[in-house]
Amino acid sequence: MKKEKSSLKSIVYQETLDGIIRGEYKAGQILNEQELVEKFGFSKSPVREALIALCNEGVLRSIPRYGYEVIRLTGRDVEEILRYRLILERGLLQDGGQNITEEYLGELERLNTLCNASEDDMWVHWEHNMNFHLALVSCSGNQYAAAQLKKSMDILKRAYAQFYWDKWSDQFNPFDMKYHQNIITCLRNGDVEGAVEKLELDFQDFHSL
Q1: Read out DSSP for 75-119?
Q2: What is the mean pLDDT of the chain?
Q3: Half-sphere exposure (CA, 13 Å, Cβ side) for 81?
Q4: Domain covering 75-204: architecture
């Protein structure tokens, strides 16, 4: 019974989060617990637990006797997260720069190819780009730091859903992969500091919100 309840909570959690990413639930919108109970056909308990989990992760804000507000991310939030990401990724790349292997470089090449092949789908491209950056820092072997990087990119994904969902089109060229090949080339040549410099340019070229 406990496992079933946990599964129902996971369904509500993931579908509500996906709804925010897809733009079904807008920033500042109030989600009503009873409406979600009716939507999913579940009891109140797993719905409430899912909403609380989203609150704990900074996705929603609980407003007593009113509902759950979808938190609005600001341009400043994004700038701070990008700065954090740069510091983290730069440090991890420098820390693991001596652990470069052909297998590692091959994975970066594969992910970069996927990034270039997914320009017409915002979220497919986002996933490939995120995986590229996670693979890039994997040379450090620091799994805890990689998990923190993943969390920061998940928050940025919500921010881009909020700011750019209605603006993405086939003509909107991805802005976050221009320096990927340069980074790989530097690493292949044993130039870790050169790769770090290209990584910094990659972040400078990131869209400002």
Answers
A1: HHHHHHHHHHHHHHHHHHHHHHGGG--HHHHHHHHHHHHHHHT-T
A2: 88
A3: 23
A4: Up-down Bundle (1.20)
Cα distances (Å, whole numbers) of residue 88 to 5, 23, 123, 181, 186: 37, 29, 23, 20, 19
Amino acid at position 115, single letter = C
Helices 75-96 and 122-137, axial angle in degrees (round to 10): 40
Q: Which residues contact 43 (CB under 8 A, 6 or more apart)?
A: 8, 37
Domain boundaries, the chain: 2-70, 75-204
201 burial class (0-12, 13-18, 19+ CB within 10 angstroms)? middle
| Predicted confidence (pLDDT) per residue in 182-193, tens digit | 999 999 999 999
Domain spanning 2-70, CATH class: mainly alpha
Looking only at the bridges linking them, the beta strands covering 60-63 and 30-31 are unpaired
Residue 2 burial (C-beta neighbours within 10 Å; 0-12, 13-18, 19+): exposed
pLDDT of 31 > 90? The answer is yes
Q: Where are the beta strands (DSSP E) in the chain?
A: 30-31, 60-63, 67-70
